[in-house]
Each structure stands twice: as C-alpha cells, then as structure tokens.
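Database export, one record per block. Field names are fixed; values are copied verbatim from the stored entry.
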Amino acid sequence: MTAGKKLSGEVWTLRWATLFAAGCFFAGIGGGWLLSEARSVAPRPETVVAAPSAAPAVARANATDTAPLLARLQADPNNPDLLISLGNLYYDAQRFPAAVDYYARALSIRPADADVRTDVGTASWYMGDADRAIAEFRQALLSRPDNANTLFNLGLVTLQGKNDAAGAIADWKKLLATNPDYPQRQQVEQMIAQAEKQ
C-alpha cells in the first residue's frame, strides 16, 4: 500500500514536472519571438523610434571600441565616414548626446545625408526632444522625400510626441504610397487604423 502511494506521488510529480517544463519551453519560445519581433522592427542602419521611456537599458560605448576610430579621426578630423561611424557607435551604446555631436559634425560636411539626419532625429526623440526630432526628420525628407525609415519615424514622433493623429496618418500614408513594397506594410496599415480611431 505504501509503495502504491509512493508510485502515485512520483507519477504526479513527473506529470507536473513535464507540464511545468512544457510551460517554460513555450514561454521561452514566446518570449524569444517577442524579442525577435522587437529587434526586427528596429534594425540598424535604419532606426525606428519608440517612446523615449521604451529605450532599452543604457549600454556603454567601450573605450576599446572607440579608440581606433578616435585615433583615425585625429589624423583626419573632417572625415564624415569616421564621424558617422563614431556617431553610430555611441548611438548603439545609447549615448545619444555624444552620437548627436558626431552626427552634427558629419552633417556640417555632408548636410544632405538623410540617414544620418534621421539618426539625429531618432536620438533627439530618445533624449526627449520631439520638436528637434520632427525638424530633423523633415530636413531629411528634403533630401530623400520617399525615405521609408524617416517617414515611419516622423509618423511615430508626430503621434506620440505631439498627439497629432492626423499628421501621423498623413506621414504613414505617404510612406506606403512612395514605398509600395515596404516590408512592414501590414504593421503600418494597423497603425493607421489605430490612429484613425483617436
């Protein structure tokens, strides 16, 4: 009788352990999918903004990462590619003021670089400056009016930073009209539908 109860307890424990392991497995898959979706929305070099409070934990740009570029920049201080590379490094480390500084130096040499200007806008948004972000996005669109990344970000900041649903919808509709094969088309259409409800 005691052996039967013990065996029953072991089966129950094994059953619950199996269910628990399966639950952890599926939770891990779901969590991994969510993380991959979050990363797929914001690939570099194209940078998609989110709310400033949604920025991930701050990483540090390692001195060993920047040292070779800084040494090269010292020898060639007006090299826009080096300035942009340093800006990207600081941007990826979420040291946005330093990134903006290097990007601004690059833009003083190459002012029509829409991608760099879009990164300045995105960094400005993460620093809490919606007005500057919008101004930078609009300036970038003067060089490349159909830049999908810029139009997407402009819509987000217009909606989240200025609570201007109509402006965001106009930006996203322009994005879809000028980029008919936009990979996140369905996501943008859903965002338009949500904004239209506001």
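Remark 1: The radius of gyration is 23 Å.
Remark 2: Residues 1-12, 29-45, 51-60 have pLDDT under 50 and may be disordered.
End of record.
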